[in-house]
Design goal:
Elements (H helix, E strand, L loop, with lengths): L1 H10 L6 E5 L5 H6 L5 E6 L2 H10 L1 H5 L3 E5 L12 E7 L8 H11 E12 L3 H7 L9 H10 L3 E6 L5 E7 L6
Parallel strand pairs: 1-2, 1-4, 2-3, 4-5
Antiparallel strand pairs: 5-7, 6-7
The structure holds S-adenosylmethionine.
């Protein structure tokens, strides 16, 4: 899947990374990234998706290299400064309060931690195509502002292809 490849490339996972995914669905992105990092965690609010994600990451979960929990991305069940990087794919447009989720991601990221969001960009075409589904889409500028307001820095938002939008940002190094 192209969004996975782009998100992976932008995140550039390292062997000592502690990775978090929100809205992991069936856990297929987690399965790709998990062997590349020291430890991986994921959360989804759907119990069915959590079950599927645990099945598709069975070995890593059994070995304690992956943790998959059920819950809302607005209330992450991990302490402050738990992760070195986080990514999410094809879920940002579902969030009614993305600022709350960004605040949580900021909280659980260590100083210098990286964030990648792979979603659908707001454009006249995407509004026509996706409006019936009620998806929340943002222009690149809106996405940049949202990230900046939540304290993220080194923000880069680009729009690969017709639909895609990929946002990268970092929690400042000096911030606990
Ligand atoms: C379209 S699926 C994408 C799954 C996966 N990220 C992928 O790209 O294949 C969106 C997922 O986000 C989850 N989700 C949506 N809002 C959420 C929230 N507030 N907290 C946790 N999970 C959420 C849904 O349950 C669903 O599994």
């Amino acid at each position: 899947m192209k969004a996975f490849a782009v998100a992976l490339q932008r995140l550039a996972p390292q062997p000592d990374d502690l990775f978090l995914e929100i809205g992991c669905g069936g856990g297929y992105f987690l399965r790709m990234i998990q062997p590349m990092v020291a430890k991986a965690a994921a959360i989804d609010h759907s119990p069915e998706m959590v079950e599927l994600a645990r099945q598709s990451n069975q070995e890593a979960v059994a070995a304690g290299r992956a943790e998959i929990l059920q819950g809302d991305a607005e209330r992450l069940p991990w302490p402050d400064n738990s992760f070195t990087c986080t990514a999410n794919t094809a879920m940002w447009f579902f969030l009614p309060r993305p600022g709350n989720v960004l605040a949580e991601l900021y909280r659980v990221l260590k100083p210098g931690g990286r964030l990648v969001i792979a979603t659908i960009r707001r454009s006249w075409l995407n509004r026509i195509v996706w409006a019936p589904y009620g998806l929340r889409l943002y222009t690149n500028q809106q996405m940049e502002e949202m990230l900046s307001q939540c304290g993220f820095r080194e923000i880069r938002v680009s729009a690969p292809g017709f639909m895609g939008q990929i946002a990268m940002a970092r929690k400042p190094s000096g911030q606990a």
